[in-house]
Fold each of these.
Amino acid sequence: QPARAVDLVEEESGAPGEEQRRWEEARLGAASLKFGARDAASQEPKYQLVLEEEETIEFVRATQLQGDEEPSGPPPPTQAQQKESIQAVRRSLPVFPFREELLAAIADHQVLIIEGETGSGKTTQIPQYLFEEGYTKKGMKIACTQPRRVAAMSVAARVAREMGGGGEPLGIRFEDCTSERTVLRYMTDGMLLREFLSEPDLASYSVVMVDEAHERTLHTDILFGLIKDVARFRPELKVLVASATLDTARFSTFFDDAPVFRIPGRRFPVDIFYTKAPEADYLEACVVSVLQIHVTQPPGDILVFLTGQEEIEAACEMLQDRCRRLGSKIRELLVLPIYANLPSDMQARIFQPTPPGARKVVVATNIAETSLTIEGIIYVLDPGFWNKQPTSFQISCINIASANQRAGRAGRVAAGKCFRLYTAWAYQHELEETTVPEIQRTSLGNVVLLLKSLGIHDLMHFDFLDPPPYETLLLALEQLYALGALNHLGELTTSGRKMAELPVDPMLSKMILASEKYSCSEEILTVAAMLSVNNSIFYRPKDKVVHADNARVNFFLPGGDHLVLLNVYTQWAESGYSSQWCYENFVQFRSMRRARDVREQLEGLLERVEVGLSSCQGDYIRVRKAITAGYFYHTARLTRSGYRTVKQQQTVFIHPNSSLFEEQPRWLLYHELVLTTKEFMRQVLEIESSWLLEVAPHYYKAKELEDPHSKKMPKKIGKTREELG
Ligand code: CDP
Ligand code: MG
């Protein structure tokens, strides 16, 4: 069994500064902390029985931290099997008593904001009420949008079942399967956007319900602008904006002070637990915690939040494996994954009732936070991370609003417990308050590409819920023109249309498109994936600095950092994607696993943008040229006074961690600039100035790439690593 990276075990000091440092280290993976070991002696015997040689995770109850009394919630539930008819279940949902009131409000107002706790029946019931009320007469349709495809499919299937006949006679369908007779359409927000292309006034819809509005996805935000416009000249169109959180005032203001309809929630108390110390490997910690809950806690199902398919599959495998080893020593544990690409029959399984005597553990992406409600969940396990799909590959810490939503999932049917795999300190000091809307997180270039692909040209006057600054919008337009995504009239080009299909930064998409010309898409995909998990590839434990640095230098290849990333990934793939290999080479296994995940997703998109799979067979010049084709906008040259960016003449420095730090090549490109003490270029690649004319003749003139003092260039300019500290 490969040893978990265990380097330092520290006594708990309890000092906040100390805890902050540990949390930072665990999060960044800079050091690996051995979890739970120090308290092995004080564990109750039953923990040890189950987990045998495994270590345990220690949690502290939040109320103990605050010195509060324990809450006295209702007694734990017996898992009474719901044998009632489907109609009785419908009548039992919190939204049901408000059916008439809600329909009256919809009749009275063109735009209505609906706020209600997750699981109250907004998504599945309200469109049915509208159908029953006759909103689909005369061939009109009702649209209900979801940010995630899985959620749209799942609720469509559920509603079809509730309305009887499997959806066929009535036509409640999800996307592609819709026919003429379809009256209720559950779709992703992106699909409704595309509807605008064929039907700009949405004439065949009587009601549009933008659901899960609180998620503020890019698509949802753009829908708001478009729908607000349509609603003005179609007074009979009803617009519903449904949200799970309390922040509905924003939506109301945007829609000219539309009224807010509140569905009172019901929620049982949830007891919160935090880990005493940060966890270095949250996946491992999850698996151990699930088993701990299973063995020590009364009946009730468990919900675990992870970030993506790869991770979920790994966790499920580990859980099943350990259950098998424990055999009859533990009760039956049903392990059920849910993520976007899971086949729908497998997805349906998470909703099936748990057999008596067994326990179910659902390992889910963020979809289970508000989009899907699974009955019977009493325990929530929250490692504190998410991947804000679909337009980002970045994994980040969740925020307080999300953490509270997740905890709330444990209190739907009875009093529950939420185990957070982070410390109370981290919750209080590290997490942000709420989600930053995607439109503010993503590159504005992507927003522009999306709007242009929807035929919206006047971006300056588009009604954004959160308008981007004018200057930033102009810069994005200029950059897209330089990248060849827009023509001189500001219209989308063929390559711009393809770039709009890729959920990555425009420069990165341009690089991927260029890999077709240079026949190196295999390598470029790897580089793109590695750049997406940026800056957390190598780790450097304090007591093994020399070893770690040596390991890193061993990956260096002439040409620069992008090739180093490629080299790391290739060697890791050759090792069979081994965790042991990562451990030995001071490479973060978790980051590599993510890179693999991203790479697979990107590979799946290649066909759509008409790029075939090909390899450069070691001819790295081709890889470097393809990268240059995407990043010619980010170039710098060495002058007498150090590096200057080519166009803006800004003074910049190579990051001390770069493989080119000592080399100081004359021409280079960088992935990004980070401002710390200085403007540092991170992930740099050596290029030749002639390549710039080859990949971007419209952008560079031969004259500006001439090197006036090419002969007299001093050998080395810039400070050494030590001088920079
Ligand atoms: O949208 P909201 O969160 O308000 O609630 P909903 O998704 O309409 O869920 C109402 C009920 O339907 C919950 O009790 C869910 O468990 C159930 N449901 C289900 O059984 N299967 C689905 N695919 C979706 C919802
Ligand atoms: Mg919903």
Amino acid sequence: LQDTKTIIAPACTWTPVHIRSLSKFEDVRVEISSDGIAKITIARPAVHNAFRPLTLLELEHAFRYARDMPSIRAVILTGEGHRAFCSGGDQSARGHGGYVGDDGIPRLAVLDLHVMMRRLPKVVIAMVAGYAIGGGHILHMVCDLTIAADNARFGQTGPKVGSFDGGYGSSYMARIVGQKRAREIWFLCRQYDAKQALQMGLVNTVVPLEQLEIETVKWCREILEKSPTAIACLKAAMNADGDGHSGLSQLAGEATRLFYQSEEGKEGKNAFLEKRKPRFGSFVIEE
Ligand code: S0N
């Protein structure tokens, strides 16, 4: 990997988020563009952006913030520098039954983060330079789209380091690349370059490293022009296929959100609050 390339000015100016809980972050940086893109950066370059429990906690806060801010319409997940997107769980934090933070409790908290990212009703794009390995590889897979730099390298290490992800890391991977490829990726623990990842359908496009952020922002801006409700429903629908009741609940949640915004939905609430019978008679289901 070359680490001497200069990344040219990004296509937009990022304004750091200053709300109190986020500004105290140690491992994660959150920046917002003026047009509603949130960039969430795992900032532990000394360990190729491996995540420890604190990192996951901060990522959860960051994704919750992105979910709750109406002005944020697209999210970029990335790693600091251009040597790594993320190298997975920090092996030095791995204890007896999981990864152990300051509170001494072993957790597999990255699994909660996967669910949170899939449930976010906004598009999440992985911007990958360098290594996306182990749990870092799974993180990019869980994103809706992946833009890879030409120096990106992908792979799993679980069977080499005594770990595995039998959740999205296995079954969702098999849906993306097919059963034979997924088994190869996990059983052999090889690394794949960006071109190979593109051929397998693991990433959406590959661009020169210098163009990575410009291209990612371009994709975000194309998405910003589209209907947010259509996108949220489409994401939920695609997740529902693989997420069972949880996926259906996400999809149904989007329907409920729309229903709440309708006159019919509001009539039910108003009637309750006004202690009267609801007047649903004038509402019809139009074919
Ligand atoms: C990425 C690799 C291939 C890069 O190799 P390279 O370029 O030779 O660099 P290194 O010298 O190896 O690394 C530079 C420095 O960074 C440290 N480092 C790198 N990765 C990690 C890491 N994951 N944890 C801790 N430190 C890391 C190196 O030690 C080195 O530091 P110094 O300079 O001080 O020596 C190569 O680095 C590599 O192979 N890394 C390890 C990849 C890996 O095995 N990751 C863990 C895989 N497992 C998971 O991610 C589990 C995820 C998870 O949480 C999970 C998911 C589902 C279900 C359960 C779980 C669960 O919680 O277990």
